[in-house]
Structures are given as structure tokens and as C-alpha cells.
Amino acid sequence: MLRNRNVFALVTVVASLAGAQPVFAQKRPVTQPLVVNAVAGQGVAIVPVNMFLIEPEVPPGTFALARPALLRWVDSVLFEGAASRAPEVKWIPPQELRRISRRAGGLMPDPDQMGQSIMRSWGMSSVPDPLRSNLRRLLAVAGGSRYAMIPASVVFKSDSAGALAVDMAVLLADVRTGKVVWRSMAKGSGGTPDQVLGKAVATIFPVEGEP
Predict the structure, then answer these.
(1) pLDDT tens-digit map of 89-115
(2) pTM value surpassing 0.90
(3) How far is 71 from 53, CA to CA, in rounded Å?
């Protein structure tokens, strides 16, 4: 009976997320919101970003922080955006995954070094091992969560008007089945780095009534 309920729950989530363009049908990067209702009340872990690029056309000095601090900054903006714009989901921040790893004394994978950037490939509809097994181990300790949001890559560049822009390849994966159930190329442009990244995050979690 429990197995049947779990299967039904998975089918319900996948069907709800199908309101977005199905992963298998995507031929090129698309920007689309996460169907938050499909995971409302559930725990979703946000995996740390570990691929961050700044294209050569971005003016020097735009980013004053060193790379490790920039990665933490992206983690923070994504988590804060998720928590404030989709509070019905129990978001697990990247720093909690790091804490779990540290406390395990080497028995858990390092969430910053799991190879998650491999998921930036648009044609991938499932999470390969060892990334999948590492995610399952971490999330089992992080409250038994089933879903992981993976920001696979963040690329800052200049748009056609010369303004700062960002492309964030982000996806939601079921770590038990390994299936990618949602994927988007979140985009933002115009403003400071904080504003540009915030605009990209807002495409993932739009709020009704926003301009």
C-alpha cells in the first residue's frame, strides 16, 4: 500500500510539472517557471552552484568578489528568492547540505564537488551516477527530501544593448528515480549583478500581479 501511495505521489508531481514544457520535448533552452504547487509542502534541497562564468565582454570590475564568494552569493540569491517567492515549499539551503557533509566527517559527499555542472547539458533528462547516488545520500539525511533544485551553470554576459545579463541553467530532479522533472534557462538583464541575478530567479518563481 505504501509503495502504491509513493507511485501515485510521483505521478501527481510529474503530471503537475507537465504544465511546463516537458523535459523530453525541449529542443533548445527555454525560460519557464517552476510549477510550485506540485511540490508545495515538500522539502526541496537547493544544490550549491559550482559553475560560474563571466564572459570577456563584461567590463572589468563588475564583480569585486573572489570566485568562492561569488558562488556563495549565487547560492544565497537563489535560496532567498525561493524562500520569499515560494514559501509553500520547504526549501533546504545549500549551507545546510554543507553542514551535513562536514558533520559526517568524510562519510558524506561534498555538495560543492559532486559534478552537478554536468546537468547543464540541455539534452539530459536524467541524473547520472555518481551524482544521483550522492544526492540521494545527502537528501536522506536532510529530512528525507525527494527533490533537488540544481543550478547547473551561471553565465554573466552582455546583452544586445550592452547591459549586464545572466543565463542560469537550472533544473528540478527527483533523486529517487533520477528523472529531471523540470528545467529552465532563467534569464535576467539590466542593472547591477544583484538585480540581474534577482530578475533571473524571478522567472523561476513569478508572483501573480507582478509587472
Answers:
(1) 999 999 999 999 999 888 899 999 999
(2) no
(3) 10
Contact 42, 146 (CB under 8 A): yes
Q: How many residues does the chain have?
A: 211
Q: Between vectors from CA 172 to CA 86 and to CA 136, what angle results, nearest 5°? A: 110
Instruction: Answer yes or no: is pLDDT of 153 > 90.
Output: yes
CA distance 118 to 110: 16
DSSP the chain: -HHHHHHHHHHHHHHHHTTSPPGGG-SS-------GGGGTTSEEEEPPP--EEE-TTSPTTS--S-HHHHHHHHHHHHHHHHHHH-TTSEEE-HHHHHHHHHHTTTSS--TTSS-GGGGG-TT--BPPTTHHHHHHHHHHHTTT--EEEEEEEEEEEE-TTS-EEEEEEEEEEETTT-BEEEEEEEEEESS-HHHHHHHHHHHHS--TT--
Cα first-last separation, the chain? 46
| Closest CA relative to residue 77, chosen from 181, 199, 163, 208 | 199
**Residue 1 CA: distances (Å) to CA of 4, 10, 44, 177, 196:** 5, 14, 25, 19, 47
pLDDT digits (tens, 9 = 90+) for 34-70: 999 999 999 999 999 999 999 999 999 999 899 999 9
Q: What are phi and psi of 165, to 5 degrees?
A: -140, 165
